[in-house]
Amino acid sequence: MKAFMTIGTIDFLLKLEGKYRDIQFYFMTNSENGAAYYENSSKNVFSAGREYEVVIETGKLKKEGFIVMNNIPVQEEEQPAFEYRFKNRKNAVDAMPGFEAFRLLRPVKGNTYVVLTQWHSSKDFDNWKNSEQFKQAHKNQSTKPAAYFPERPFVTAYQMYAEDE
User: Fold this and answer.
1) For residue 145, which phi and psi values (nearest 5 degrees)?
2) Predicted pLDDT of residue 41
3) For the chain, domain boundaries
4) 95, 107, 78, 74: which is closest to 137 by C-alpha?
5) pLDDT of residue 140
6) How confident is the prediction along the chain (165 residues), in pLDDT tens digits per residue?
7) Which of 31, 52, 68, 83 is the S-S candidate for 3 at Cβ 3.0 to 4.6 Å?
8) Exposure of 20 by Cβ count < 10 A (0-12 exposed, 13-18 middle, 19+ buried)?
9) If one looks up domain 2-160 in CATH, what number appears?
10) Rounded to whole angstroms, how far apart are CA atoms 162 and 5?
11) DSSP for the chain?
12) Where is the ABM domain (predicted)?
């Protein structure tokens, strides 16, 4: 399955819905910009978007909630090991209260994977970050060789867009 994502002003992105009625878009915002995301299509309708292969899919994305994207650059030779780690994860996050969905997205171009999680609220995500399950899930991360990441990973967080905003 493919996934596509782009950023821009929310007003501009919302116009996509009228232009591409056959696509189920997910719109989100933060203090810096808006983002649009969709899956299950072979066509990229974004002129300046990113394309991904969905490696792992858990849960169903919803039009409301809180999205966290861990953007993780991974060197090409390390990508199989990186994906293996996720495919063999214990799925502790899936059982957390407020968890909605998980996606591991492999970039079609470039080297930055996206680990996308959706939560009912930002508080649910904070509860996950402060949980024993989170510590267990991330306990071996500091032992990775420095060469594992060619650039610094970064996190982006969004609130799903609601019409009344």
Assistant:
1) -65, 150
2) 72
3) 2-160
4) 95
5) 61
6) 999 999 999 999 999 999 999 999 999 999 999 999 999 877 899 989 999 999 999 999 999 999 999 999 999 999 999 999 888 876 778 889 999 999 999 999 999 999 999 999 999 999 988 888 777 776 665 444 445 556 788 999 999 998 764
7) 52
8) middle
9) 3.30.70.100
10) 18
11) -EEEEEEE-HHHHHHHHHH-TTS--EEEE-SS-EEEEEES-S----TT-EEEEEEEEEE---SSSEEEEEEEE--GGGHHHHHHHHHT---GGGGSTTEEEEEEEEESSSSEEEEEEEESSHHHHHHHHTSHHHHHHTTTGGGS-GGG-SS--EEEEEEEP-TT-
12) 66-154
| Residue tagged 């994502």 (tokens) | 5
Cα dihedral sign, 74-84-97-165: positive
Residue 3, amino acid: A
CB atoms near residue 129 (< 10 Å): 11
